[in-house]
Predict the structure.
Amino acid sequence: MMLSLSSSPHLKRQRNTGQVMRLVMYAAIPGLIAQTWFFGFGALVHFAVAAATCIATEALIVELRKRDVERTIKDSSALLTALLLAVSIPPYAPWWLTVIGSVFAIAIVKQLYGGLGNNPFNPAMAAYVMLLISFPVQMTNWAPVASLSQYEESALDSASIVFTGYNVEGYSIEQLRSDVDGHTMATPLDHLKTALTTGETSEEALQAPIYSNGLGQGWFWINMAYLFGGLLLLRLKVINWHIPVGVIVGTFAISGFFHLIDGSVYASPLFHLFSGGLMFGAFFIATDPVSASTTDKGRLLFGAGIGLWIYIIRTWGGYPDAVAFAVLIMNMGVPLIDYYTRPRTYGHRSEHKSAIKRAEDRD
Amino acid sequence: MNEYQELTWQGLWKNNPALVQLLGLCPLLAVTATVVNGLGLGIATTLVLIGSNCTVSLVRNWVPKEIRIPIFVMVIAAFVTIVQLLMNAFTFKLYEALGIFIPLIVTNCAIIGRAEAYASKNPVKFAAFDGVMMGVGFTLVLMILGAMRELLGYGTLFSGAELLLGDWATVLKITVFETDSQFLLAILPPGAFLGMGLLIALKNALNDRVEAMVVKPQEGKVVTRARVTGDTAADS
């Protein structure tokens, strides 16, 4: 059965869920290309694994629940979850990690709550957090940026690393991750965090070879690519501006504040905005229509809260990046945010104003 | 169904303290990382439950209604102390593994719940049997949950059985699969919550199925409606 939405004539576009989900995926292509360029084909391999697992799990569970399998698969939401998860997982992570994550995302986080539209948490991010706390070693296997890596990596190498742990020539992940001197290369956020604990200032830490001009090599361009994709989504009116702006302004405000207080400890706002998964999180993850806030004011608050939490956990928490944690924490707050930011119904006064009016009438 | 059968049915299935009453969740979620831990705490709880049920039932006619709760708690605390000292003496390793959760049996609501709801109103033989069945029902859930988490987390079953049963019990350990990277989520508290939720769901699903088999669908009255719109209009 196909429910067709009929809208008033002033709404130009009619998109069904599947079209929206696919548009989001197309918009992620620039970022995906950038990620492949800098970190090898790992993300694509993981996407293939995740897509197969997500769709199979979704079909199985929907079949068990005696719902329409074809219609559920065609809305592409499982595919989008697979993409979001695959992009977040380190490119050198083993394949079974993606399989466990995908099954968890679809079966536990999405379908147990009643399927698309009923899940209080973002499935991809909940699965990511589950993997991160369950398999901390594998989940930090980030590849070095291609320009710093000692080894050339082909698509075959990436697939071989994901499925066997060794590349085609037989180098292990540990060897691939180390630089010429044999040090394991950390991600920019990770490096900064460790360097600060050893007494370096943030300016000194940012001189390391994995940075260029104070920004993480490769990561800057990946974030730019996702920003571009996100702006495309805004242009196509697939998402509203409130959440991404909330996230970016929230992160910028708090990181700017602390950078001004003590620039030697707290990295610049620019570094935070273009590190890790921030742009990806702001435009592609936080904007999930199911688990995000649904009012305009609420969306701004929701986004700002995510930005705040990202900075707090990055700076003082135990993990180098925090997009997933921040999104989950704010997902929990969504019912409360929605409750307090209900928009005024047309023709009615706002609650606040009518309270004042009542008080005046009494006098 | 006589009283004993009824008590068995209630304790093990219909009114299971862990799956239906949802009492004693704190130890249930905290110590069930392995089967043996679950079994150890389950046995300890069962012993306390039997002792407290018997005692409460014996003194039920002399305890003033107004102060019954403090008295029940003191009775339970006395038995918990006995069990704790016994475990300290005979199963020291397990005593250390379970740690604070042995003294915390005092606060297990399943125990005071049975004292208040059943033992204080019934003769001692039924109260004792109720204690056994509730305890066994609780222990079974602890063990099943422990098995789920141990299997997922470590890939083994009954590891550490020697803590409870003596040195010969090391042979009981079954290694289902070898793993280099443990599935930490299953071992950590969130895994306990997820496992518990899945167990309750499974129990409810089985319940529906059993009830559908046992209870014959009643012949309801067939309500016939005269159709006043649609087809009749098309005919004319």
User: Anything to note?
Assistant: Residues 124-154 of chain B form the longest helix (31 residues). Chain B has one domain: 3-214. Residues 3-214 of chain B form one domain.
